[in-house]
Design a protein that fits this description.
Layout lengths: L4 H14 L3 E2 L11 H9 L3 H14 L4 H13 L3 H14 L4 H13 L3 H14 L4 H13 L4 H12 L4 H13 L3 H17 L5 H13 L3 H14 L4 H13 L3 H11 L6 H15 L2 H40 L3 H14 L4 H13 L3 H14 L4 H13 L3 H14 L4 H13 L3 H9 L1 E2 L7 H12 L3 H14 L4 H15 L1
Antiparallel strand pairs: 1-2
Helix pairs in contact: 1-23, 1-25, 2-3, 3-4, 4-5, 4-6, 5-6, 6-7, 7-8, 8-9, 8-10, 9-10, 10-11, 10-12, 11-12, 12-13, 12-14, 13-14, 14-15, 14-16, 15-16, 16-17, 17-18, 18-19, 19-20, 20-21, 21-22, 21-23, 22-23, 23-24, 24-25, 25-26, 26-27
Length: about 500
């Protein structure tokens, strides 16, 4: 007999670590769930329910770009940025030219502060959809937000494709203003306003951008008209309330400014700015006690914001150091960094997962299991969390329990091929080779994708007394990659066994 034990166990582990393929067959799910109903849940910030329903929907529609993008958005709001990134990267593996998925990946990159990646994704959008004005506009808006000179060129490309888009024209005017070309900015803003006025559904943002420009030019009275028009279109446009209040303060219209600023106080992101302006308003009106109250509250919020920023910087620094240690193979050092972080910030759920990963790599399986289970009590929608727990349990020789976790991981994200490989590995560990073969047959090995799934299938076929089929699988791997050493070794062993 072939000495398959150690060799094939090693291959199983390699499969779980390296493979990145695509699952084609969906798991059964309810067709009664619609993307519209899930989107409605997300709009009402019912993230947990939305997460459960999008998982069910994607089990029946694993290739849906729109569903994957929506799931990524939900995961972002749940704080599962790594899982969101995984969902987007797997859908892009199937649909590499999808502007929708690329745009979502760009937005996620901006969220985590990776400007370079965001730019690359947005540039890819324009490469795959060069005739899309929206793609060029999104790239221009990215450059505009970072005061990059490339903004103007991107907007000009978009404008050539959609010359009558009022928001695009207003964006281009803002880019001219940013570049110091205010005469052209004025002409384009006036053109944007005419187009917007003629639209069946005028865009509030067009009026707002023009108002901001007018305010920058100290044309405060004129800016009030545009802020007002923006608020007529969108009564919840908080930035417009704040902008109008700033112009009103400049014009010494204290009561009207105070009215707008009180609305801004209900929104956390504008509270400090509103309180600082309210302090000025109260001082101008001679109500010193009220001014002191506003000033004290603004200082309190500023101190809190500073403390939160310092804490976030500390967390980010420790996470970066720990991650760097992991990349350099210093797992014990990384684990110590995560321990220090969690001692002060046990609410940082990702740290629990990464600590579990460290312990798993170090072979400290009980600690790893404890860490990951704690993570999953905080973030049960994490496909990567269930996947890691499955791997830990598999290494602990608990194939049934591991399979439960792999199945849950697959429910969380049907394109997470490592989950299917884990299910197959658990069957192999239990000597249930037909079940393993059935699972592995459902994985579509696309051209250029890592061949580990076929290596695992070879193992299952051989152990199921199907040596000829096992050899055929190995030949497919070697045809795709003649230098694959694992496949070469397996073929040699199989041929030697056949010759005996």
């Amino acid at each position: 007999m072939i000495r398959t034990g150690a060799r094939f166990v090693g291959i199983v582990i390699l499969c779980l670590v390296l493979c990145s393929l695509v699952i084609c067959s969906p798991v059964g799910a309810s067709d009664d769930i619609s993307l519209a109903s899930i989107t409605a849940l997300a709009e009402h910030k019912q993230w947990a329910r939305a997460a459960t329903q999008i998982e069910l929907y994607r089990q029946s529609h694993p290739d849906s770009i729109t569903a994957a993008v929506l799931q990524a958005e939900i995961l972002i709001h749940l704080g599962l940025l790594s899982d969101a990134n995984g969902v987007l990267q797997r859908i892009l593996a199937i649909h590499p030219h999808s502007v929708e998925a690329l745009s979502a990946s760009a937005e996620l990159s901006r969220t985590i502060g990776d400007k370079a990646a965001a730019e690359q994704f947005l540039v890819r959008c324009t490469q795959h959809a060069p005739r899309s004005s929206e793609a060029w506009k999104r790239l221009g808006e990215f450059y505009l937000s970072w005061a990059r000179k490339e903004a103007l060129g991107s907007f000009q490309r978009a404008e050539a494709l959609a010359p009558n888009d009022p928001l695009l024209r207003a964006d281009m005017a803002a880019a001219y203003h940013q570049a110091g070309q205010d005469e052209q900015a004025t002409r384009d803003f006036e053109r944007a306003i005419r187009l917007n006025d003629a639209s069946t559904s005028p865009d509030a943002t067009v009026y707002y951008l023009f108002a901001q420009f007018l305010q920058d030019k100290a044309r405060y009275q004129e800016s009030l008209t545009q802020y007002g028009r923006a608020l007529e279109r969108d009564r919840d446009f908080i930035d417009a309330y704040l902008g109008r209040a700033q112009s009103l303060v400049r014009l010494h219209e204290w009561s009207r400014a105070e009215s707008d600023l009180r609305i801004c106080l209900n929104h956390k992101e504008h509270q400090i700015a509103a309180l600082n302006l309210l302090t000025k308003v109260a001082q101008a009106k001679g109500t010193s006690e009220e001014a002191q109250k506003y000033a004290a509250r603004a200082e309190e919020l500023s101190n809190t914001a500073s403390s939160e920023k310092a804490a976030n910087n500390q967390i980010a620094s420790l996470l970066q150091n720990a991650h760097a240690s992991m990349l350099n193979g210093k797992l014990a050092e990384a684990a110590e960094s995560y321990h220090r972080l969690l001692a002060d910030h046990p609410e940082v759920s990702d740290a629990w997962l990464e600590l579990g990963r460290c312990h798993w790599e170090l072979g400290q399986l009980d600690d790893a299991e404890s860490n990951v289970r704690h993570f999953l009590t905080l973030q049960n929608a994490s496909a990567s969390g269930h996947l890691l727990l499955g791997r830990i349990l598999l290494r602990q020789k608990q194939p049934r329990e591991a399979r439960d976790q792999f199945n849950q991981s697959k429910k969380n994200d049907p394109l997470l091929v490592e989950a299917s490989l884990g299910i197959a590995a658990s069957y192999i560990m239990e000597n249930k080779f037909p079940e393993a073969i059935g699972t592995l047959r459902k994985i579509d090995v696309l051209p250029g994708v890592n061949p580990e799934a076929r290596l695992m299938l070879t193992e299952a076929l051989y152990k199921n007394h199907q040596p000829d089929e096992a050899l055929r699988e190995i030949d497919v791997v070697l045809k795709q990659d003649p230098t694959n050493r694992a496949a070469q070794q397996m073929k040699t062993a199989l041929l030697q066994e056949r010759a005996r």
